Amino acid sequence: MIEKMDISVVIITYNEEKRLEAALKSVADIASEIVVVDRFSDDDTVKVAKKYTDLVFQRKWTNFTDQKNFGNSKTSFLWILSLDADERVSPELREEILQLKEGEPDCSGFSMPRQTYYLGRWIRHGGWYPDRKIRLFRKDSVRWEGEYVHESLVVEGEVNLLKGPLHHFTYRNIRDHLERINTFSDLSAQKLYAKKKKCHWYHLAIVPFLNFLKSYFWRAGVLDGFAGFVVATLHGYSVFIRYAKLKEIWKKGERIGPFPY
User: Fold this and answer.
1) Domain end marker among 138, 168, 198
2) Burial class of residue 202, CB neighbours in 10 A (0-12, 13-18, 19+)
3) Which of 38, 46, 57, 216 could connect to 232 by a Cys-Cys bridge, CB 3.0–4.6 Å?
4) Are residues 129 and 155 in the same domain?
């Protein structure tokens, strides 16, 4: 007799009271348990989480990798679905996962396309889609890695493909998008500096424009209308500001000594 597949859902949070409940509802009939790792939110995030699970852990922030690995360590089951508070399991993806739960897959994980809702529409081009992510995996075959930003999942073994999309509501508006670029560009610049990378003139004058062209034309962002133009423009801007901040760090280092951060 084949045993059914139990899935632990892991979500890390910080001040996500407005978006968390929709994420939790989207996995309610998928999860055998839900683990929430909270960064001492000062809103009602924990209160919302406790409506769906008793496995809520508050923990001082270190980085994305460490928080997610900690969450994985608190699960009871072999299979984990890793979800962010701004993501939702779509109805199509839900049905695929429910079918998987009828048996025990012979792989280490599954990737799924992630589709972002931005400025009133689903983005299907510009490098934002299909944006495949490995989010369903065996706990004994993976680990999160990365110290600064954009943590990555290292998987030992075969990864199969799912068709249903993971819905992503990452930016509330352009202001939120710009604020996030500002935060992540700090981390990215520090990562480059730690590797002793330098900012050259072409990183500021040419590379950002090439990234705009790549997103808007080569990856067909133009087909996403105004939203596609904004995505491409801010993609180029994010590259510019990352290297501008790297240049600033080096200048500070020259004045006050190495590695001021």
Assistant:
1) 168
2) exposed
3) 216
4) yes
Six-digit token string for 22? 């929709």
Question: Do residue 67 and residue 104 come from a single domain?
Answer: yes
Whole domain around residue 249: which residue ranges?
A: 174-256
Element housing 254 (H / E): helix 225-256
Q: Which of 119, 153, 168 is the last residue of a domain?
A: 168
Between the alpha carbon of residue 4 and those of residues 71, 82, 100, 150, 151, the distances in Å are 23, 19, 9, 33, 30
Cβ-defined contacts of 115-120 (< 8 Å, 24+): 115/90, 115/165, 115/166, 115/167, 115/168, 116/168, 116/169, 116/170, 117/167, 117/168, 117/169, 118/170, 118/171, 118/227, 118/230, 118/231, 119/173, 119/174, 119/226, 119/227, 119/230, 120/227
Residues making up the chain, counted from first to last: 261
Does residue 220 sit in the same domain as residue 164? Answer: no
Residues 11 and 108 in one domain: yes
Tokens standing for residue 251? 């200048």
Distances 27 to 16, 24, 88, 173, 253 between C-alpha atoms, Å: 17, 6, 8, 25, 47
- pTM for this entry: 0.88
Task: Taking each helix axis as running N to C, give the angle between helix 174-194 and helix 225-256, from 0 to 180 degrees, rounded to the nearest 10.
Answer: 40
pLDDT in tens, 87-138: 999 999 999 999 999 888 999 999 999 999 999 999 999 999 999 999 999 9
Residue 81 and residue 19 in one domain: yes
